[in-house]
Prior knowledge:
- Chain A is α+β, with helices and mostly antiparallel strands and about 290 residues long.
- Helices cover about 35% and strands about 25% of the residues of chain A.
- Chain A has a 5-stranded antiparallel beta sheet with strand order 4-5-10-6-7. A 4-stranded antiparallel beta sheet of chain A has the order 11-12-13-14, with helices on both faces.
- In chain A, α5 packs antiparallel against α8 (about 125-130), α10 packs antiparallel against α11 (about 240-250) and α11 runs antiparallel to α12.
- The longest helix of chain A has 20 residues, at about 265-280.
- Helices cover about 30% and strands about 15% of the residues of chain B.
- Chain B has helices at about 25-30, 85-95, 105-115, 120-130, 140-150, and strands at about 1-10, 10-15, 50, 55-60, 70-75.
- In chain B, strands 2-1-5-3-4 form a 5-stranded mixed beta sheet, with helices on one face.
- In chain B, α2 crosses α5 (about 140-150).
- Helices cover about 30% and strands about 25% of the residues of chain C.
- Chain C has a 7-stranded mixed beta sheet, sandwiched between helices. A 6-stranded mixed beta sheet of chain C has the order 9-17-16-15-10-31, sandwiched between helices.
- Chain C is globular, with a radius of gyration of 28 Å.
- The interface of A and B includes residues 3, 35, 42 and 51 of A.
Amino acid sequence: MKPCPFRYHAPTSMEAATGALALAGDDALVMSGGQSLMPMLNMRLARPSDVIDLRAVPDLGHVEVRDGMVDVGAMVTHRAAETDALIATNLPLAHRAAGMIGFRAIRNRGTVGGSIAHADPAAEWPAVLVALDGHVTLQSATAVRTISSDEFFVSVFTTAKLPGEIITGLSFSARFAQHWGFAEFQRRTGDFAIVAAAVACQVSESVITEARVVLAGVGSTPVRCAAAEAVLLGRAATAETAAAAAAAARDEVDPIGDVHASADYRRRLVFSETHRAISQALSPRVGDLAHA
Amino acid sequence: MREINVVINGSDVRATVSDRLLLSDFIRDDQRLTGTHVGCEHGYCGSCTVLLDGASVRSCLTLAVQTDGHVIETVESLAVGADLHPIQEAFRLNHGLQCGFCTPGLLMTTLELARENRECSREEIRERLAGNLCRCTGYHHIVDAVEAALRTGGRDDG
Amino acid sequence: MMDDVRSPRLVGARVLRVEDRRLLTGSGRFVADIALDRMLAAKFVRADVAHGNLTGVDVSAGLSIDGVLAVFVGSDFADHEVRCVSSYEGFQSSGQPILAVDRVRFVGEAIAMVVADDEYVAEDGCDAVIVDIEALTPILSRAQALADDAEPLHAGWVGNAYARRALRTPRFDQAVANAAHHLTLQLTNGRHTGIPIETRGCVAEYDRGSGVFRLFTTTQIPHLIRAGLSLALGVPESNIQVVSPDVGGGFGVKAQLYVEDVACCLAARALGRPIKWVEDRREHFIASHHSREHYHSVTAHFDDDGVVQALEADVAVDMGAYSVFPWTATMDNGMAMGILPGPYRIHHYAATGTPYCTNKTPYGAYRGVARPAACFSIERLIDQIARHRGLDRVEVRRRNLLQGSDYPWHSPSGLVYDSGSLIESMDKVVELADYDGLLVDQARGRAEGRLLGIGLVAFTEQTAHSTQEFKLRGVPIVFGYETVRVRMDASGQAVVAASIHDHGQGLETTLAQITADRLGLAIEDVHVQYGDTDRVAYGSGTFASRSAVLAGGAATKAADVVADVLREVAAHCLEASPEDVVLDAGKLWVRGTPSRSIEVKEVCRLVYQRPERLPDGVEPMLEATRTYDAAPGTGAYTNAAHLAMVEVDQQTGKSQVLTYAVVEDCGPMINPMIVEGQIFGGIAQGIGTALFEEFLYDDDGQPLSTTFADYLIPTMTDVPDFRVAHLQTPSPHTIGGIKGMGEGGAIPPGAVIAAAIEDAISPLGHVVITRLPLTPERVLEYIDAAKNQGGGR
Lengths: 292, 158, 793
């Protein structure tokens, strides 16, 4: 399990990075933390001609609050997200989810941008980005653009990112800092979630005024559960509402089976995890709920 | 091939490595520091864990070229002459190893924890070290060892 | 008497391990650490279909890669194979080619071997080799393998059974007829294996001048590897040296001759350079042997009191594509049939067995060999008898377990249980775990809607079995004795060379403890060597919980011979009679007169360097080699009781082991610290058996469990803290009464945890758990069945 030969680039500016990517062509890969990419290289599931490492590119490690959004640089590590005070305060959902990724040694190196670019449908960050109504900022040699999280994830390991584009940052909405929930079912500590649920709500006078219910592990992308969201919207923030929404999510999803879990079992986990996440989101003691 | 300059266990090292060389192979084969072990090469077993600028990383999921200008610590850095590091001594006293293959990764993961200088319950220790697979011990004695190391000065360096 | 100068006994004490310092400092030497001059790296091209005709291997593109020196294919090694023939009547033999020649029989089978400057380039070469395989329908199940019209997987075979076995005690039918109740279970055990954290690997070199192969390899059984290599290479054993340095866990997986060992030797000879191969983890999952896939049908015939009158069993084991060396493809089946009656007073027994061939990775030994499945079957039966008769699980066991007066117990399958403390261990584990307190916790938890369950098993572990036992198992080499040579040097140091191997069991320490005590030395003055066929003549290695007993016994015998020489020389120096000389604490002195003494070191110096001072007839040598076979060779029976509490999440089906307590009786313990480490490690593997581990295949025979993300072994958070206590019933058969215990921890957890989960979900309804591993999804299926069935207790 050793990588195929490739040319390694460590550009020291975004311009150089996009330039190198443009030059290297379609078989080049961008590496940020490498914690998803390196196993694929070692197993030769990825065979790039060039690897463009963002490690030496400056200014990709920022966390900033701006206009109700939190901007997170692509090279912010899971560990940084897990410990950053701005993220803890403004994006408690992201803060919680970051701490559940892999192990410390993986979190020390893996990055938010890398996870979003990798677009594993079972991973935490893509679901969190969608739940927090986020945006992805992409830069190529010629342009910078921003794309909504709802449009970014296309399929398994496939995104709307064009060849030649590099993710430079993510933006997450801070408007869900009061009502959020995150639950995931893992076989063991540090495993990929079989099903994870990220829930972000706004509640006004005990009535749910906005709800985003996003599932990982049940489709080819993070899946928004329109039926569950419809149940929540306009309802009172009660245990009955949570159960009804979780049931709606279970009935709505159409997961596939694999070596880890059958489709039926995944559906049942959708109920349990969505129920836990929604219950947490609607709990009056926000963020204080022990994780089930 | 490119030249890198790294500090390994306190020594400046200049080396020429191929672009695709894994840090684990660089440490073991090029530097002949064979205490770092390779158990899976996909980031799950934790045997190859080393500290990079003080933070635990999987050396199998890191390229040697990425460590240019950085500081690496391996298991060989722990003991001073014949004196075991307090963490090593705690593993010895508590029978925290059997075949010894996963042990270097556990020691380095524990070193990172010990430097945080805080109390840990057995449950916290188990959570923290869950990314290091051991097939021999059943973990009980490892938890004993880490508990003892945190209590008796395993955190006194760094 | 003057005993005040005696050193404290090391045997029986919690002596810290002598091997730890090198392992803790990264100074161990594992196979992957070996670098020889001019060494090349090898990687293997492996079959990616389960069954097919190999129609072509085009190596040209591989050979053209810069740095690739050679690519070998099946025809290059066609004169060699690994074949292991059981002496069982009707055994159908399968030779495994070193590299596939015209047929592939499992995904992972080696097809070509690329040799290059380094591993990276060797993998590039493997990528470039083009293999053509014409796929055939794979055989992946018992039903497919044993169907009347099944195509045999090996030429010249009839059907796909490696063998068929049957045994039946006299008057079995009568006992069945007399029993009031009959209960049958069908049980399934998932395919899984040992998964050491160090993968396999080897370095082979060939000396043209002497014609000697030297193979460094990750093995538990150096001498048996030499024997197998001798057959596979076609050279005498004297032309082979097998060295097994530090090994990162074995568990049986590394107790086998693999084709890669042979291939590297052949390539080293062909190229005249050392060849190194280190298995990668993906290869390990498909090319290192599998284990544990047992299918049992068991019937208990019992009376109103829940006492078993007769037992009936059918055992089928999926042995994969080839019979492995040195175990054969019948070992697991034979062991299961033999041990299934377990620790119970069962007189009447009938069993049939069918090890069968499939297109899966070959099957070999894994810690406990067949006993986890046998224990699962018999204990699940006993639990159901308890339920059937409305008895507590402890009570029904009390009525059936062997007691002191039953020993020696001649089991209905022909085993001789030498001694034990089954009921005592069960009673003690009930106390240790605070069973009554757990029942209170369980009731309280249930009132809150939690699913909490308790499982309990008492069992025997046959250990240290040797000649007599392995003769019965049909293996071509009977694993009888072990060999130890004790030599004292002129500096007064004892060097102990043994035919066993230590890969975590602490034998380096325990053999040093034994020898140090016999020679009156400090442990620092004893140096244990193993893992090199050139050190002692013969032996089997380390497996089957036998090394401490057999090598310990041989060390005792050899050390005693050396001690006699020390005494004789000392007596000469001290002008006393050898019988009056006491040896201890590094000194020899005349009994009753400690001032008349001489240092052991001084005696050693005299023996080698001052031969003129030796008594007549004493040779200038402090060395003895002895073997030990623990007659009668049927084994020393360790027993233990395990008790666990498990919580099941009703929504997800996930089970968490909350409490685990063990009472172990392995006779007098050489080192309780090491004993406990072995028990804990075994239980953790058993938790893997119970809850996590299984090789899954798709319908085409593609393995689905090829990374640590798919094949789950327990992590630190999946295993609880353990509680342990000991009983020490000596074996009448072994030196020191010592019994083996290396495998025991891994044997019952499947049965214990299944019982606990069944108990946990019993408020929802009664189901009988018969399948391992109990993944969350399967537990949820059991929960559904319980709810549908209803009427929980």
